[in-house]
Write a structure and sequence with these properties.
This protein is an alpha+beta fold and 282 residues long. The protein has two domains: 87 residues, Orthogonal Bundle (434 Repressor (Amino-terminal Domain)); 171 residues, Beta-Lactamase, CATH 3.30.450. It is 44% helix and 12% strand. The protein is built from twelve helices and five strands. It has a five-stranded antiparallel β-sheet. A hairpin with a 7-residue loop joins strand 4 and strand 5. It starts with 7 loop residues before the first helix and ends with a helix.
Length: 282
């Protein structure tokens, strides 16, 4: 399959169309004229009026005719389309109006962070980059999910495991929500790193999966910094877990993911897994 990195002009056009089409004219106090509306959402002229730009400008943006809107125009479009904060950041990325970090993308764990991952035991912890590549993990995380060391490097990727690993793909009780949130986060990373060919190839591989392709086409954007998961573990049973994602200031391409139990039963299950991980490590 042919792979490509982000085409900002085409993606900007598609994103603006999908965000416009999801809006309800009634929410803006606009005349509904529903019988004369052939497509859902706001008309282009309505978005143009709300954003303070010309209709022709909106048409050219949505037809990917090479425009690069200014930061002021991007902000006006974000307000007009009522974008959520993560969607707004995505729009700024597509318009190339957000400052970029020109540093080298992380493919290995920064040594201080790798030590921190180990030091945070007995909490299950792993370190990832923006592609969801798993760069470091502790024994507790390996016991909770899988022994990452037994996997080839190409499979040490959180999204790959969720989509394709024969056991882990069924761990999450609310699988669709977990996959959807992961895709929304990955789309934000895709726009923020438009020249990352490895990421583009990874997404191309994932889009051969029908579930991923369907959700990817919806263009949801959401950076998930914390949340909860219910995991059905083959040895420990049902675990209710909270996760926190931290970004180090000095290594902003790396993300520290920390899991904690949400109730006593889940904590007892984590303790059992932690004990088995400790025995395995000796």
């Amino acid at each position: 399959m042919t792979t490509r990195t982000v085409d900002p002009t085409q993606e900007l056009a598609a994103f603006l169309r999908t965000r416009r089409e999801r809006l309800d004219p009634d929410d803006f106090g606009l005349p509904s004229r529903r019988r004369s509306r052939r497509t859902p959402g706001l008309r282009r002229e309505e978005v143009a009026e709300l954003a303070g730009v010309s209709i022709d400008y909106i048409v050219r943006l949505e037809q990917a005719r090479g425009l690069r809107p200014s930061a002021d125009v991007v902000e006006a479009l974000a307000r007009a389309l009522r974008l959520a904060p993560d969607e707004r950041a995505y729009l700024f990325d597509l318009a190339r109006q957000r400052p970029r970090d020109d540093g080298k993308l992380a493919t290995t764990a920064a040594p201080p962070l790798a030590r921190l991952v180990a030091d945070l035991s007995p909490l299950p912890v792993m370190l990832m980059n923006h592609r969801y590549d798993i760069l470091a993990w502790n024994d507790e995380m390996a016991a909770l999910l899988v022994d990452f060391g037994t996997l080839p490097p190409s499979q040490r990727n959180s999204m790959w495991l969720c989509l394709k690993h024969p056991e882990i793909r069924d761990f999450a009780v609310d699988r669709e929500r977990v996959v959807r949130e992961g895709i929304a986060h990955l789309r934000a990373a895709w726009a923020a790193h438009p020249d990352d060919r490895a990421l583009a190839e990874l997404i191309a591989e994932f889009t051969t999966d029908e579930e991923f392709a369907r959700m990817w086409a919806e263009r949801d954007v959401k950076v998930k910094g914390r949340g909860s998961k219910t995991i059905r573990h083959p040895a420990a049973g049902l675990l209710e877990l909270h996760f926190e994602v931290l970004t180090p200031l000095q290594d902003q391409d790396q993300r520290l993911v920390i899991y904690r139990a949400m109730d006593e039963e889940s904590q007892a299950a984590l303790d059992r897994l932690s004990g088995s991980a400790g025995r395995a490590g000796r």
